[in-house]
Design goal:
Layout: E1 5-10, H1 16-30, E2 34-38, H2 44-54, H3 63-87, E3 91-95, H4 98-108, H5 113-124, E4 131-136, H6 139-146, H7 160-177, E5 181-185, H8 190-203
Parallel strand pairs: 1-3, 1-4, 2-3, 4-5
Helix pairs in contact: 1-8, 2-3, 3-5, 4-5, 4-7
The protein binds thymidine-5'-diphosphate.
Amino acid sequence: MKGKFIAFEGCEGAGKSTQMRLLSETMQKRGIAHVVTREPGGGPISEAIRKIILDGKNAAMTDECEALLYAAARAQHLADVVLPALGRGETVLCDRYIFSSFAYQGYGRGLSLEFLRQINAYAIAACMPDCTLFLDIPPARAFERKHGRDENDRIETAGEAFHRRVYEGYHALLGAYAPQLVAVDCSGTKYETSARIAALLEARGLLG
Ligand code: TYD
């Protein structure tokens, strides 16, 4: 039996890792076999690609190169981590996936969505998540929660206007990709958000 694939999306500091940890705890209590992973990364080759992409020293990287490296890391991570886990019948919780490329490289950097769809279609070979949760927090609030930006991270330091475009991009994508991409209201406590996520996944038959 093929496992379920759940991806998390959001702006920097939206609380994805906290929510993934809480969901993982819920799954553990229910005896649901699962793996928690992240993009870009999740395996030695894709973690190496991640270092190149995010390294503040690579300021000369073109937007096209950035987009292709994210897609390359995605293809490798899929082969190393996601597909084997799904094949074992486990649920995969993935921090970021294809909609990050549409939001960051598309709306943020201004690359054509058609180009991004093409390179990512090639990278993922039709393996889309059963559900992608967008943790909805505007970037200014998210950076506040996170206590600022990492000055050595090329994406985090891309500027306020960039991160605003990314956030607005996610909202445009929500309209185009519902119901597989769904927003989660994160205005309450982390436990309220976590309960919302569990209820949403439960309703879609993705929690056991
Ligand atoms: P990370 O430190 O994991 O950020 P976060 O905790 O916010 O997820 O770094 C991942 C960065 O890469 C993040 O700034 C978003 C960016 N990114 C893209 O621009 N495109 C992509 O396709 C992916 C997967 C990530």
